[in-house]
Amino acid sequence: MNNTEKYFIAVLCRGLGICNSEYFDNDGNYRGEINEDIKNGAKKLSERHSLVGLYSEGVLRLSRDNAEKMMLTMSVAALVAKSAERFNAMNKTIEELASQGVDVTVMKGYVLRNYYSMPEYRSFGDIDLLIKKKDSEKAKKILEKLGFSESNNELHVIGMRKDQQYFELHTDILGDDFFVPGGAAHLLREPWDSAVETSRKGIFEFSAEFHFLYLILHIAKHFYCMGAGVRMFLDVALMAEKGIVDWKKTAEYIKASGMAEFTLSVFSVCNKFFGTTIPEELRSALCGDNGAAFPDEAASDEMADYVIRGGIFGFDGPAYEVAKLRQAYLENRKDDREDDGKTVKKAASRAIIPDRATMERRYPFCRKKPWLLPAAHVARIFSVLTNRRRARSAAMRMKRLCASDDSAKKQVEFYKKIGL
Questions:
Q1: Whole-angstrom distance, CA of residue 52 vs CA of residue 329
Q2: CA dihedral 188, 331, 401, 307 (to 10 degrees)
Q3: 20 to 30 A Cα–Cα from 212, which one of 91, 113, 191, 194?
Q4: Cα–Cα distances in Å, from 176 out to 34, 215, 329?
Q5: In angstroms, rounded to a whole number, what is the distance separating the alpha carbons of residues 294 and 331?
């Protein structure tokens, strides 16, 4: 990590109340270099990783300037008030679904916010809800009566939006098979078996052990796509420190899913960032008797750099093409196929003519009327060719994809080192 990134992580630690000796001396003074450029760069990182509230809290604790403290206090208060208002509105919507007979399992940010020193510091772009497939139309109609409109409809996900509220209604958390390693598919196939009803009728949460596994798999999914940011690792670190997880049961889940090495890699980054120590019961279960091994220092450093430089959900821009090629190489490895030298061409042709699953996600009407797939392909290509901006963008993306082969191969080797 460079000086700006180190300062960013140090400020987050201070916001969490952690005085990591790597960053601070005995008097609580920051050890590293600091200037206005570093401060401005770290502030931008807090925005990029959607950790503005916690970062502001850290700066507030570090500041010796009363004027700066007053400005920060007002800024944090406004952020907290806005976050609380948004959450309360979403919470009322969830309670309305439950009151009308739609069982709802809340997960990820909705639950994880309670592990932060101030729940409002845990930002979220949307709220993921697991509902039963039989309730999907009912849930959609309830939300429409509340003023929501459908903004996305994929195979197992319905997106519903109203002003600043956005819900993703999942009828299945298994998702795309490609992002589900080893035995994880079996564990995720019946998520309701791991859901426990809360004190509020009709509102469920996953058991802590299942939820922790889901967080690890969710990070892996984002790595397979574009990458994962600091906030996802902070979620894992805070949940691990909470003392609510049965690590023996969690280790069984993790080993059954084939995620042991990747879990150790995640903890190695949590340790670098926040000083998090892997629970001994989990470490011994994963590492004992010729089990998984922690990544070496170089791989751990590479993973930390990759995370902090990627933003909240990973890289964008030219890295998109690298990710697409990397996925193609990983698919070869998953299916035990040798690289025949045509991987780039295959990835390029898939970008032009997506596979059926991708088309059905983009054009939901093709699920029930598969004979319309050819027409959907033609309409998609026509919409690109008749729009100069989109056509130019597609041409540039194709050019970058064809030039990204070496970078993609390096990422595949890096992913092997961290257990993916």
A1: 36
A2: 50
A3: 91
A4: 44, 16, 17
A5: 25
In 3D space, the residue among 133, 124, 208, 109 whose CA is nearest the CA of residue 166 turns out to be 124
> Residue type at 353?
I
Q: Could you give the 3-state DSSP secondary structure of residue 202?
A: coil
Tokens matching residue 39: 């401060």
pLDDT recorded at residue 21: 72
Pairing of the two strands 157-162 and 165-170: antiparallel
Amino acid at 419: G
What is the reported pTM? 0.83
Nearest to 113 by CA among 235, 215, 241: 235
Tokens at residue 226, please? 């574009």
- Where the chain has pLDDT below 70, the residues are 153-155, 175-183, 290, 311-345, 347-348, 350-351, 357, 361, 396-405, 407-408
The CA-based diameter of the chain, rounded to the nearest angstrom, is: 70
**pLDDT recorded at residue 16:** 86
Quote the radius of gyration of the chain (alpha carbons, Å).
23
Please say whether the beta carbons of 286 and 294 come within 8 A: no
> Do residues 13 and 19 touch, judged by C-beta distance below 8 A?
yes
User: Which residues touch 151 (CB under 8 Å, ≥6 apart)?
Assistant: 159, 160, 161, 166
| Structural tokens at position 179 | 């992002």
- Structure tokens of 165? 């509220």
The 3-state DSSP class for residue 167 equals strand
Cα–Cα dist 116/103, whole Å: 26
How far apart CA 166 and CA 168 sit, in angstroms, is 7
State how beta strands 203-206 and 104-106 pair.
parallel
Identify the structural domains of the chain with CATH numbers, from first to last.
1-64 (no CATH), 81-206 (3.30.460.40), 207-316 (no CATH), 319-417 (no CATH)
- Both structure tokens of 276: 């998090």
Structure tokens at 139: 């849930």
- 230-269 pLDDT tens trace: 999 999 999 999 889 999 999 999 998 888 999 999 999 9
Contact 306, 411 (CB under 8 A): no
d(CA 35, CA 46): 17
Alpha helices by DSSP H, listed for 126-181, are 136-145
